[in-house]
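Dear colleagues,

As part of the handover before I leave the project, I'm documenting each prediction I ran so the next person doesn't have to rerun anything. This entry is a single chain, and its sequence is reproduced below.
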Amino acid sequence: MKTIGLFGLATLTAGALLGADSTAKDDVSKAAKALADKSYSWKTTVVVPEGTQFRPGPTEGKTEKDGPTWVSITFGDNTTQAVIHGEKSAITDRDGAWQSVSESENAEGPARFRGAMVRNLAKPAVQAAELAGQTKDLKKEGDVYSGELTEEGAKTLMRFRGGRGGGGGGPNILIAKGSVKFWVKDGLLQKYEHKVDGSMDFNGNEVEIKRTTTVEIKDVGTTKVAIPEGAKSKLN
């Protein structure tokens, strides 16, 4: 009787924990969907250790529901603007001139990288929902949901191709781990943060990766996107 009782208790406890995890993921997914149904602005900041060669600057973005999305991405002293509207997208080159993303992807060097980055750009509402699905579990404390990422989820973020990871190509990932937090208030996603820590093999050299990315949401329901004049012809 004791054995059965303990087994039953363990089963109930596991079921309760699984139910709590499922509910937490559902809460975040619903909060992300609620955000996706509105216009909003956001700011993304990335923190890396001192001395890191690749140091992304802030990204500012605006999006309208069923409308265009505008982003401004900073890398060092260079700022790139991009506009995405439906299946069309345009991006500025290093001189600030607008071109279609397909034009930039056919170029060489940094222009191709910028084009791929825009192709893989995930709006915060989309990325947050994906991250929630890539956690081992989520726990709620107040308005904050937090959890550890799966190894594959951490690998996706470590590839760092404009927010989505960009597929399986590129350097070989040796170690990948990470965590994520979501701030939800009144059923709406307010902010999220993800951390990755690991290493990659770049041409036989092991390189450590450590990065904290924070995305803050603002102006929900009131954001308007004005498409720059130079970008309009590239979206036709």
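Helices lie at 2-36, 101-105, 110-119, 124-133, 151-159, 229-232. The chain has six helices and eleven strands.

All the best with the project,
I.
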